[in-house]
Amino acid sequence: MSEPTATCEKKDTVPGRSFRIRIEKRLETPAWWNAVTPVISIALALLFGAIFLKLTGYSPITVYKIMFKDTFGTRYGITETLVKASPLLLSAVGVSMAFRMQLWNIGGEGQIYMGALAASWVALTFTGLPKYIMVPAMMIAAAAAGGIWAFLGSAPRAIWGVNEILTTLMLNYVAIFWVEYFVYGPWRDPTAFLFPLSPVFPKAAWLPTFGNTRIHWGLIFGIIAALGVGLLLSRTKWGYEIRVIGENPSAARYSGMNISRNIILVMLLSGAISGIAGMCEVSGIIHRLQAQVSTGYGYTAIIIAFLAKLHPIGIIIVSLLFGGLLVAGYSVQIYGIPADIATMLQGSLLFFVLGVEALAQYRIRVIRN
Amino acid sequence: MTQTTFGFITAVLAAAVEAGTPILYAALGEILTERAGILNLSVEGTMLVGAVSGFLATVATGNLAAGILGAAIAGGIIAAIHAFLSVTLKVNQVVSGLSLSMFATGVSGYLGKPIIGVAAPVSFKSIPIPGLSKIPVLGPMFFNHNLLVYGSYVLVAFLWYFVYKTRPGLHMRSVGESPRTADSLGINVSFVQYTYTIIGGALSGIAGAYLSLAYAPSWIEQMTAGRGWIAIALVIFAVWNPLRAMIGAYLFGGIEALGFRIQVVGATISPIVLKMMPYIFTIAVLIITTARSASYKNEAPQALGVPYERE
C-alpha cells in the first residue's frame, strides 16, 4: 500500500527475449478504470451466469434475451421494475447510512418485516382514520418499529462491543417469526380460508399508486430518502461526524465525538428507513399483511449499497438495475428456469466488482532492456 | 423424578446432539478459517450449497459417501472464491463474505429447484453402538446416532489436537495472530490462508449435507434457517476452541430441540414464538461472551479479517 514502486510479482527475464514483464501497484487508479469497472463487472457476471446456464442445460443467449425483453421491452416489465426497485431503494439507503459509519447493519430484512408489522397494526386497529392521517400514522409506526429493531441489534455493540453483524442478522429471523405469529394467529383473516393473511386494510390505508400501474409512492419515498441521506451526510455537521467516525474512529474519539451515541442514532435512522420500505410493501401492494413481506429485499439492499459505493445517486441506479433483474428472474420461471438466477447474478456482480477493482490497482509494465 | 420427565430429558439431550451437529461442523470449519486470519461470512450460503450438492450427488450415485464428498467439494469451491478475493485480491472480507453468501444461496435455489419434494434415495440412519448405547442418558445422548455424528466426535478430538499440539496447527495460529511474523519465519502465509479457508468451506458443505441427508432428509429451500450464522456466533462463544465449540453446539441444538418438544408436553406457548428461541439465545450468548469474557479478547486471532500485505 505505502510503497508506490513496490513490485508485487516479478517475472524476471524471459529467456531469449529482451524485455521483462512486471506487475506492479499503481500510484493511483486512473479515472477511466472507475468508469469501466461496472461495465467489465456486469459483462463478467453475465458471462459467469451464461456458463452456469449452459452447464445446467439452458441456452444462455435465449435466456438473457427473454430476461431483457420481458423486463425492459414491455410496459408491464418496466413498471414492475419500478415496483420491485422501491423497497430495494429504501432499504439500500437505510443500510448504506450505517455502512458509512462502518456499522454492519445486516438487519434490513428484519427491519422491513417489523415496519410492515407496525404499519399493519395501525391500519387494522384504527380503521376509521382518514387517509391523510392514516398514511402518515402508518409511516411513523413503521419507522419507529424498524428503528427500534435496528436499535435492538446495535445497542449491544454500542454498550459492550458485540459484533453487530450477527445480532442484526439474528433479529431478521425473529422479525419474520413475529409477522408469522400475527398472520397465523391473532390477525388471521377468517374469510381467507386457510391462508395466513390478515384482513384487507381499509382503503384509507392504501398507499396511492400512479395511474393504473402498481407503482406506488414508495418509489418517491425512496428517492427522497436517497437524496435526503445524501445531503445529510455531505452537508450537515452530523453527517460529517458520521463520515469521520466511519473513516477514522480513533480520530473521532480524540476529537470528542460520542461514538456510542452515534451508533444508536445512525442505526435508529437506518432501521426507520427500512421500516418504511416494509410499510410500503403492505400498504402499496398487497394491502394486507402476509407471512412473506419481502423476498430478501433487505439482503439484496446490502449488495446494492456496496455496488453503489454508498453513493445516493448510485443507489438509485443500482436499485433500478436490481429491480429489473428480479423481474427478469421471475419472467424466465415460466420456461422452467429457477428465478434464483437473479440472486446469483446479483451476488456474483458484487464479487466481480470487488475483483476488478482490486485488479485495477495493479498494472502490467513491459520493460525493454 | 418421574419416569416421563426422565424420558423427556433424555429425548431432549439426544435431540440436542442431533440438532447441534450441523452447527458443530460449520463452526469447526470457521474456527480453522478464522484461526488463519480469514473471516468468512459466507457459511450460511455455503451450507446451502453443500446441502443441495450433497443431495444431488447422492441421487446421482445412490451413495452417501459420494454425497458427502460432493458437498465438501462444493463448499470448498465457494470458500476458494472467498480465499481468492480476500487473500490474493485483499478485498474487504466482510463484503466478500456477504456477497458470496447471497450468491451461494442463489446457486442452491437454482440447483435445488428440480429436487424440491424428492425424498432422499438413501439417508444416514442411526447406528446404536453396542453396549455404550445402553448407558442411561449418556447412551441415547451420544451413542445412538448416525455416522456423521460419530464423525464429528472424531473431528473435534482431532482438531483440538491439531490446533494446539501440532506444528501445522501452530503455523495456522501464527498466521492468524501475526502474518508478518509468520512470514518472516518462512511460513507461506497465502498458502496457509487458502488451505484453511477451503477446508473450512468444505466442512460447511458437510454441515449442509448433514441437513439434507441425515437431519431432514430432503432438500428444502433455505433449509439452513440461519444455522450458518449461528455457527459464526458459536465460534466467538467457543473462543476459537474446537472442544468448546462442541459444548456450545449442543447447547444451541438443545434450545432448538426443546422448542420442538416443549409443545408435546402440553405447554401453551405459540410454536412460532418457540422457533425464535435459538436466535434470541444466540444474541444473549454473544452479549454474555463479549461483555464478560476476558478470554474472548485474548483468544481472538489478532489479524482476523485484516488483509496481509507484504512489505
What does the model show?
The complex is a heterodimer of chains A (369) and B (311). Chain A is mainly α and 369 residues long. Chain A contains 13 helices and 3 strands, in the order ββαααααααααααααβ. Chain A has helices at residues 31-55, 60-72, 75-100, 108-125, 131-160, 164-184, 218-235, 237-247, 249-254, 259-286, 297-307, 312-333, 340-360, and strands at residues 7-11, 19-25, 362-368. Chain A has a 3-stranded antiparallel sheet with strand order 1-2-3. Chain A starts with 6 loop residues before the first strand and ends with a strand. Chain B has one domain: ABC transporter involved in vitamin B12 uptake, BtuC, CATH 1.10.3470. Helices cover 72% and strands 1% of the residues of chain B. Chain B is built from 14 helices and 2 strands. In chain B, helix 3 packs antiparallel against helix 4 and helix 10 packs across helix 11. Chain B is globular.
In short:
With 369 residues, chain A is mostly helical. Chain A has 13 helices and 3 strands.
Measured between the Cα atoms of the first and last residue of chain A, the distance is: 28 Å
Mean model confidence by pLDDT of chain A = 88
Q: How are the strands ordered across the major sheet of chain A?
A: 1-2-3
Assigned CATH class of chain A: Mainly Alpha
| Extended strand count of chain A | 3
- H and E string of chain B: HHHHEHEHHHHHHHHH
CATH architectural grouping of chain B: Orthogonal Bundle
As a percent range, the share of strand residues of chain A is: 5-15%
Query: Roughly how many Å apart are the termini of chain B?
Result: 66 Å
Low-confidence region ranges of chain B: none
The shape of chain B is globular
Largest sheet of chain B: 2 strands, antiparallel
Structural class of chain B: mainly alpha
Class by SSE composition of chain A: mainly alpha
Which quaternary structure do these chains form?
heterodimer
Major beta sheet of chain A, specifics?
3 strands, antiparallel
On the 0-100 scale, what is the average pLDDT of chain B? 91
What's the CATH topology name of chain A?
ABC transporter involved in vitamin B12 uptake, BtuC
